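Async update (no meeting this week)

Hi team, since we skipped the sync, here's where things stand on the single-chain job. The sequence we agreed to prioritize is pasted below, unchanged from the tracker. I ran it this morning and attached the output directly underneath so nobody has to dig for it. Comments welcome in thread, and please keep replies under the output.
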Amino acid sequence: MNDAYYIIPVLIFLPTILLILAQLVYYYLGVNHKYKDLQVASMPSLSILVPTKGEKIETVQGLLENIDNAEWDKSKIEVIIISDDTEEYFKEMQQRVKIPENLKVIFYRRGINKRGYKSGALHDGFKKSTGELILTMDVDARIYTDSIKKGYAQIMAENADAVTMNWIGYGSVESTTVNSLIISTYYTNTSIINGRDHAGMPVMPVGCGTLFKRDALNAVDSWDPEMIQDDLEIGTRLIHAGKKIKSSDANIKIEVPDTFNAFYTQQTRWAMGSMEVLSRRFRYIISSKIGIIKRLDIIAFLLQYIPLVLTFLMAIALVIISPFIHFDILFNPLFFLWIILLGLYAYVFVKIGDKFNINAKKAVSAMGRLSSYTVAISPFVLLWIFRAFKSRRIYRITPKGAGHKMPSNIYAILAFGIFFIAGSLFYLIHFYLLTGLWLLYYSMGYISTFYLVYKDTWQKNKE
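Output:
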């Protein structure tokens, strides 16, 4: 019977080890790659698609001013604001926004017969666009003056059908949460986009900051309005159609979540979206005319939230079976390999922090908060992964700005923390030290998240 229990440490540590190891290798490849320096001789017409709902008019104004500063022939740019707002707010937006003199801006409101959410907005915006190039942007994103030129240069250099821009995180406030996501955004982008590209693996578009050739989007009839995860979904069909997607050295600033609620909403939506794409576009992946290793890499990429869920399920299993265990079940070579890789990840995290003028102390604090938040959302990630299989799926917009309400799930998080602490104490009392200490470490993700969120909410309400 004891032999059967050994599957638990394997399921806890091996998927996480493989994920961290792959990310570290890809990060090394991505951060050390140099892109070709190619000059842009001509500028094709460009349509910039910007879905919006409930955004501040000042944010829309800031976006247009940002685009107006881009190094591109303004006579060849059209910005299409695709609004899912009420008719009243849409009219107010049109009246209050001051359009830069040389910029063509089209305001389009989707009516009551609209299909889907962001994917539907992009689909409808594309149908109204005329540009030879299509750039997708969120309303709070900001490009650098040379971003479009650099992106187009890589399309030309690589004979690509689409290129992604690098996400550079920024926050509306300075906080530990914002610091953690600025660092992790850079790490993740460099790893899963640039690194995978330079390892010869397929690149998926990003939802904000991908530059497409119009012909490529026409070949797959653009975005599917019925799908939640717009970027990964269209990526699978573009790859299936034989289109080439590459990374670039162009940068785009994206606003990162600044509260636990925003982080929770973003990550659970992405988890659901990844599984949605895998389940509904699996035939496109396996029938793509790329090597089997590349197809497996796409599948592994779409399963990136599974190690988090497996760890949660196995932690529950450890507590449930604790009365029947008579040995230190997590005393396993995988445990020590996991510790080593966590140390390497921490080293990289702190080094990236230095790039953004975040000192080592703040970077370590940021890493701790990110780790806690990630552990704490595990049960809800599992729930939202299951929701990917429902016929009706909801797109939840990531809330912006500091929130003042206590999250509705915070007491469930506390309950899970207490549950795992109880299990850790049982193992420690019986001197099964590694298992007890690991469960204690795992429980602290829930307990510290409860404490941090409760404290932050109380302080904000006090102000």
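Quick observations from my side:
The longest strand covers residues 46-52.
The CA atoms of residues 54 and 89 lie 8 Å apart.
Reply here if anything looks off.
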